[in-house]
Design a protein that fits this description.
Shape of chain A: globular
Number of domains of chain B: 2
Order of helices and strands of chain B: EHHHHHHHHHHHH
Shape of chain B: flat
Structural class of chain B: mainly alpha
Radius of gyration of chain A: 19 Å
Bound molecules: adenosine-5'-triphosphate, magnesium ion
Strand content of chain A: 15-25%
Largest interface: B-D, 73 and 72 residues
Helix content of chain A: 40-55%
Number of helices of chain B: 12
CATH superfamily of the largest domain in chain B: MetI-like
Chains: A alpha/beta, B mainly alpha, C alpha/beta
Structural class of chain A: alpha/beta
CATH class of the largest domain in chain B: Mainly Alpha
Number of helices of chain A: 13
Number of strands of chain A: 12
Oligomer: heteropentamer
CATH architecture of the largest domain in chain B: Orthogonal Bundle
Mean pLDDT of chain A: 88
Low-confidence stretches of chain A: none
Largest sheet of chain A: 5 strands, mixed
Low-confidence stretches of chain B: 1-9
Chain lengths: 309, 292, 266, 292, 266
């Protein structure tokens, strides 16, 4: 069993369980219970998913967190050498626009620009493609790709708020979409409508090699993660305080608590929810060679214990 | 105090008849084949390249992690496929177009800045202050401004490119200008050259070694920045350039293709160095005896 | 033969109480101190003085490359404010040629740069003056392939090809052997016969000063001040007048107790 | 053919008595207050800075988009707050630590490469080939290798930093070496200097203007790259540096803080230029008369 | 006074059939062609010849900076393979001083770099030789603040301070005025009296060749070949022997029809 475990954190409320885990040293506690004294947990943060993938591949990282779409490619390419550990937050992402002309994605003309985190490959881009496939037929799923431009969420919010640029739509994410709603933008597309209900989009994943070599540590991680979710669900104020403190968020504790309790913003559950719809779509559009039939194919069996049917 | 010819008596004086020079022509020692081979710069360079390629191939075979670091042969295959399919050439063309534009404008702006700097005192201060302030700024600092001014698309990419080209070229050019010897300056002034004519006819050729170095550095950093900017900006409209090709393939974890894209950058770098910069060097600073 | 020179009322060049200084960082070096002299049209005026006495600096000031900190330099009555192709300078340094131009291009360059003549005429003059300095064989080489003396000859050809009203020459023949030097001196005098330019000429050879000059300004050692202004003689070297003048200048320059005739070999 | 003294008769000869030089000391023209002000480089620089600050302030007021482009005053306030809270100094210290290390190692490697390049022929070829190939490569090309070798953390960041420092410094140094005049080279060889002593005692000082330019460019690009690398790599362990500070605040949409971070980069750039590079320049190339 | 020189069997320097060429790009310039001569220990050997005949190139080859394409150069019986502090060179160019060192440091530098003497001794020698060339006042200036002649004097001081076995001097006095030049010549001869070094000396002044040299090699114009090797005379300038030798060399150098005595002024 390893002496040190390296975990990647991410920004945002969606990844709150990881933040809580770190702040409350939950992993260290669970590991100690399993007899692994003095387990060192090294937390790191990335801003790009590609770098995280590199880190996993080079063996510099044990637990990564990120979009399920990116993970699927990794899983596919490594023929299952990397598997999911748990789903992180569940929540909708909204396509926002300040252009009153635009009510649905069918209203986008060739000149209308949509900002999203990364063209073609981000979760937002996939959801847009899924809707396009539905509206224009599977062959035309990429029709709106030409309208999209890559831009960080903060920049996109600023562009929309200025209202003077050619970018009048933004496929957003919490908490930016709520901000934009407040600033007078309207919702064009809700991912819950695309998926037919709540869905996850990001997960924690780990190399099979690590899982097999460190079963106790791995188990401790899953337990700790569950502990974190429980803390959030039972003591939201405490979780909100942790979030505010570690992220320097400007929102008040009350507002964060409200968001944590609002399933339209974020909720937490380890069991993967509708994730396979993403991989199915990627398979259908030839971006995956293999398709997981059930989520159990791509997640470690430890997760099964936390599935509440 | 002393005598002039202590040992002279021993040696006879002699005077030879005047004669036309022997048909000297070219006197040359015969070189061994190895010396001939080694004396050829191209041969030595190919050896260097071969050694690097072998190092790549063998290390990647040791690492055995094709998703992170593919072998040289895999990369070559991917490169070949990309070229054959016409996709890579298209992407390269897109990138080179933007690159050439950014590089050209960058050189022009650098020329203006340094002209301003050598003709006026406030220009000197402006150049050194602006360089000290702006050169260390990362590209992201410029993006908001670029977006504000030009919106999305090529112009914003150009701004970021310019930021990479202008400063190294201007710094090298200006430092080269300052190093031009007083004698040459005075010679130029003596012929009534002033202002821009003085710069173009005297300072630029006299500082050419420095300017060339600045242009090499600017060129390399333009490439780097373009790839990075395409990664960030993504493709806007058109098919996207080499950076976008790399980004897409990275997301698809087609690592061999990613390295094929990088290989394209390397090959273009080598071609530009050997076809453009080396030719220019041979035709200028080498020929002029300003560099060995 | 021509005795009818433009006997202008004002001298062409007036140097009046000129002090020249170099300031570099902490150091302040006074090169010349209150130097005054006048050069008339058609003069071949020689500056003579020990090494480091400010001859080159004076020439640079007349050339307009340096401003005096005291005094005035007037050319044709107007104060000199900058350099220009009316005063062609031959510098003392070997690196005065443009390394990126061949010998021929170097000679043509000032003609073209100053827009004096058309390209064809410039080329013709280049051929002529390169031949005068004996470098026909080397016309298409770049300066870095020339010997020291050859470089200086190119610089001389370059200045003469401009056929300027005023020629400023800073020890132009210092790097030349006796034969070449004599040939160059002859060329200069021949050109002077043709165009009657005015020359300001720095040399450290007393003999050369008398041969080349019509008037000789003798400067004292660092910092340079005027010691004397003398007329040259018409007779050639070896003549009594030449010898007398030479002896007079030597006496003036060589401090007492260091007589010129002191035998070098004991 | 011609006469010696056509107009000589008109002028009398004269000989002055030998005299010690007048106590010349310093002769100086009186300058007007404006000339005095303008003659002061610091004053001119401050004017340049003030103009830039005013331009920033007024443009940002016109744009009225504090999320994208905050005013200069807001940025100053944010900067002040960041400094007062101790957070900004901490981040700056973190970044500067890595930067200094990367820069130092980069200079050392560049020195090795150029030493190799001037002492052996294959070294020359290696340097020019490697520069042509690697310099245009974006940092992402190095990341996989860096991760493989060093894992996450400072060493990998260092690799990326080195990539920014080595090439411009090596290029400028090498080009400077090649421009050293044959006479100086021969002088050095004459004293029996060979190999490294020759390089250190002759080539380096003789090529110092070029080397300094390379160091300036390397320094600026090290900064740029560090900020970018911190953005990509994020923070590992420690609190993170200035780049991470900028990224965090960008995510939080605290644009004024983002610009405060950039302002810190600018201020450090100015300080390094005026305290380090300018001092070095004045004490070396200016004093030696190698640059005006 | 000392007549007991080391009468070594082999000459110190043997130059045998040496051809020197420069190759730059397309151009191939032959500087000297099959030049042979021998310099014995204690000789003050002068190379005399017209500008561009390859004197500097020959000196560079002896200095070990250039390899002959034909023939051999042997020093003490061994082939010259590189430069070294046993042969101190004074170059013709003004830029031979290290610009980043003051005059004093420039003079000390070879002593320290070649690890000949300790720092204190180097400093003492620097003071001594800087005084000999009359630059005491300028010891702490950097070379760019010196005049052309002053730079050459620093280079001379630098070479003499090394007190080398062999001194290679390329027109060292060309940029000096008559007085300074004579002083320098005297200093050289005085030093030779003390240390009996061997000197190879390039000059373009016939007079200087006779004054300074014990043996004179006359070279023909480009490409340089040997015209004559002559003994110098002991008598000083002005003496009949001196005059006769001078006339003989002049006749040799100045092509027929261009007699030396041809009056410069018609
Ligand atoms: N660039 C400079 N900076 C500072 N001082 C200088 C500079 N050039 C020359 N000097 C000083 O000015 C004085 C005169 O120099 P100048 O070159 O005019 O002498 P010169 O008479 O031409 O001597 P030479 O016959 O040796 O060429 C010298 O004392 C020298 O030290
Ligand atoms: N670096 C070089 N490259 C090519 N050719 C050269 C180079 N240096 C000198 N030469 C050529 O070699 C020949 C001899 O040059 P060198 O400098 O030895 O002449 P020199 O006898 O010293 O003349 P001077 O008295 O003018 O100094 C000349 O014809 C010259 O053109
Ligand atoms: Mg001078
Ligand atoms: Mg020579």
């Amino acid at each position: 069993e390893t002496q040190e475990v390296r975990v990647a954190e991410q920004f945002g409320l969606v990844y709150l369980p990881l933040t809580v885990m770190r702040d409350r040293k939950l992993l260290e506690k669970r590991a100690a219970e399993a007899g692994l004294k003095d387990l060192q947990v090294k937390w790191s943060r990335f801003s790009g998913s590609a770098q995280m993938t590199d880190a996993i591949l080079s063996g510099s990282l044990d637990f990564a967190s990120g979009a399920y779409a990116n993970f699927s490619v990794l899983w596919d390419k490594t023929h299952g050498a990397v598997k999911g550990v748990t789903q992180v937050g569940i929540g909708p992402v909204w396509l926002m626009s300040v252009d009153p002309r635009i009510k649905s994605i069918k209203d986008y003309g060739p000149k209308d620009r949509i900002a999203l985190p990364a063209v073609k490959v981000s979760t937002q881009a996939l959801i847009l493609q899924m809707q396009a496939a539905r509206d224009f037929g599977l062959d035309s799923y990429a029709r709106l790709d030409a309208n999209t431009v890559a831009m960080g969420h903060p920049d996109a919010v600023a562009m929309l708020s200025s209202g003077k640029t050619e970018v009048k739509s933004h496929f957003s994410a919490p908490p930016y979409q709520a901000m934009e709603l407040k600033n007078g933008a309207h919702k064009v597309l809700d991912s819950y409508d695309v998926f037919g209900g709540p869905h996850g989009s990001s997960i924690v994943f780990a190399p099979v090699k690590f899982h097999d070599a460190n079963p106790k540590t791995f188990k401790a991680f899953v337990q700790a993660y569950n502990d974190a979710i429980e803390l959030i669900n039972t003591r939201p104020a405490e979780a909100a305080e942790i979030y505010k403190r570690t992220s320097n968020d400007k929102e008040s504790i009350e507002e964060i608590v409200r968001q944590l309790k609002d399933p339209q913003v974020v909720s937490f559950k380890m069991e993967p929810l509708n994730l396979t719809k993403i991989s199915d779509f990627m398979y259908a559009t030839k971006r995956l060679q293999a398709k997981p039939a059930r989520w159990q194919d791509v997640f470690f069996p430890e997760l099964q214990d936390y599935v509440k049917e | 105090m002393h005598d002039i010819q202590p040992a002279a008596a021993r040696r006879p004086e002699y005077v030879l008849p005047e004669a036309p020079p022997a048909a000297a022509g070219e006197v040359q020692r015969e070189l061994s084949p190895w010396e001939k081979f080694w004396g050829n710069a191209l041969a030595r360079r190919l050896v260097v390249l071969a050694v690097l390629a072998i190092a790549w191939e063998s290390y990647s075979r040791v690492v055995q992690n094709p998703l992170l670091f593919p072998t040289f042969t895999d990369t070559c295959v991917a490169f070949w496929r990309g070229m054959a399919s016409g996709e890579l050439p298209q992407r390269i063309a897109n990138s080179l177009g933007v690159l050439a534009m950014g590089y050209g404008i960058g050189l022009a702006v650098a020329a203006l800045l340094t002209t301003f700097a050598v003709t006026t005192r406030i220009g000197t201060d402006f150049l050194s202050t602006a360089t000290a302030m702006l050169n260390p700024l990362p590209a992201i600092a410029l993006l908001p401004l670029a977006l504000l001014w030009f919106g999305l698309g090529t112009p914003s990419t150009l701004v970021v490119l310019l930021h990479s080209v202008i400063w190294p070229v201007a710094l090298n050019t200006h430092s080269g200008f300052l190093s031009v010897s007083d004698t040459l300056r005075m010679a130029g002034q003596n012929y009534g050259l002033r202002g821009v004519r003085f710069i173009v006819l005297i300072l630029v050729p006299a500082a050419f070694p420095s300017i060339l170095t600045g242009m090499k550095i600017g060129w390399a950093f333009a490439w780097r920045t373009l790839i990075a900017a395409e990664l960030v900006f993504g493709s806007n409209g058109g098919g996207g350039g080499l950076g976008w090709y790399i980004f897409e393939n990275r997301n698809q974890m087609e690592t061999a293709n990613v390295f094929a894209g990088l290989l394209a950058v390397i090959i273009i770098g080598l071609l530009v160095e050997s076809l453009v910069f080396r030719t220019v060097e041979n035709a200028t600073v080498r020929k002029w005896g300003m560099q060995r | 033969m021509q005795r009818d020179l433009p006997a202008a009322a004002t001298p062409l060049l007036q140097v009046q109480g000129v002090t020249l200084q170099y300031r570099t960082g902490r150091h302040l070096v006074t090169a010349t101190q209150r130097v005054s002299f006048e050069v008339h049209r058609g003069d071949r005026f020689v500056l003579l003085g020990p090494s480091g006495c400010g001859k080159s600096t004076l020439l640079k000031a007349v050339g307009g490359f340096m401003a005096p900190v005291e005094g005035q330099i007037r050319l044709d009555g107007r104060e000199v404010r900058g350099a220009g192709p009316d005063r062609m300078m031959v510098f003392q340094e070997f690196d005065q040629l443009l390394p990126w131009k061949t010998v021929r291009q170097n000679v043509m360059f000032p003609l073209l740069a100053s827009r004096r003549v058309a390209r064809a005429e410039a080329a013709a003059r280049a051929v002529k003056y390169i031949a005068k300095v004996g470098l026909d064989q080397f016309a298409d080489l770049h300066p870095h392939m020339l010997s020291g003396g050859m470089k200086q000859r190119v610089a001389i050809a370059r200045a003469m090809a401009m056929e300027p009203a005023m020629l400023l020459m800073d020890e132009p023949y210092a790097a030349l052997d006796a034969l070449t030097r004599r040939k160059m001196q002859r060329e200069l005098l021949r050109l002077w016969d043709d165009t009657r330019f005015t020359a300001l000429f720095v040399t450290h050879s007393i003999e050369e000063a008398i041969i080349v000059g019509t008037r000789i300004l003798v400067l004292s050692p660092h910092p340079g001040r005027v010691r004397a202004e003398l007329d040259s003689v018409t007779e050639g070297p070896g003549s009594p007048g030449f010898g007398a003048l030479q002896a007079r200048i030597e006496e003036m320059l060589f401090a007492p107790g260091q007589a010129a005739q002191e035998p070098v070999h004991a």
